Amino acid sequence: MIPASNSFLKYDDPMLIKNSETESPKQPSDFKPATRPSKSKPATSEDNTETKQILEAIFPPREWMDGNQRWVQKVSTAPSTRADVIQLKEQLNTKLNTKLQQSCSRDRPG
After folding, report:
1. Segment Disordered: which positions (predicted)?
2. Are 103 and 42 in contact, with CB atoms under 8 Å apart?
3. What are phi and psi of 16, to 5 degrees?
4. In sequence order, what are the beta bridge partners of 54?
5. How far from 82 is each of 11, 12, 37, 86, CA to CA, in Å?
6. Could you give the CA distance from residue 100 to residue 110 in angstroms, rounded to a whole number?
7. Average of pLDDT values for 2-17?
8. Which residues neighbour 26 within 8 Å (Cβ) at sequence distance 6 or greater?
9. At CA 107, angle to CA 101 and CA 110, rounded to 5?
10. What does pTM read for this prediction?
């Protein structure tokens, strides 16, 4: 079961990392410090790998156990669509309105 989250981040599908009845998959290679790409160099898969590593350093993957299985879910690197942005704006407005209503109800003398 995917853990509940109050995050505005978009995540990839969860991946099974370890099942106690099977071997765990090999871990990814160690983090390499990012180097600033030159402006004349076109984007390559190496740049994409560095971007993913930086993103994972800033937003670590979510991990949880479900029975004897260990699951990991990483932040998505897919570009956002217009619909994603509109949905995120609605979620943010809903949270802000809820906070404002809670704050106003506490300030009212009762």
Report:
1. 1-52
2. no
3. -75, 120
4. none
5. 17, 18, 28, 6
6. 17
7. 80
8. none
9. 105
10. 0.57
Q: Which residue has the tokens 């300030």?
A: 107
Tokens of 38: 């030159």
Amino acid at 78: A
Give residue for tokens 């619909």: 83
Both tokens assigned to 87: 């949905």
3-state secondary structure of 51: helix
pLDDT at 106: 77
pLDDT (tens digit per residue) in 35-89: 444 555 555 667 788 888 999 999 999 999 998 999 999 999 889 999 999 999 9
Q: What is the mean pLDDT of the chain?
A: 78
The pLDDT value recorded for residue 71 is 92
Residue 48, token pair as written in the block: 């994409």
- Amino acid identity for residue 91 in this structure: Q
Which stretches within the chain are classed as H helix?
A: 45-58, 82-107
Sequence letter at residue 76: S
* First vs last C-alpha separation in the chain: 42
Task: Name the token pair of 36.
Answer: 């600033």
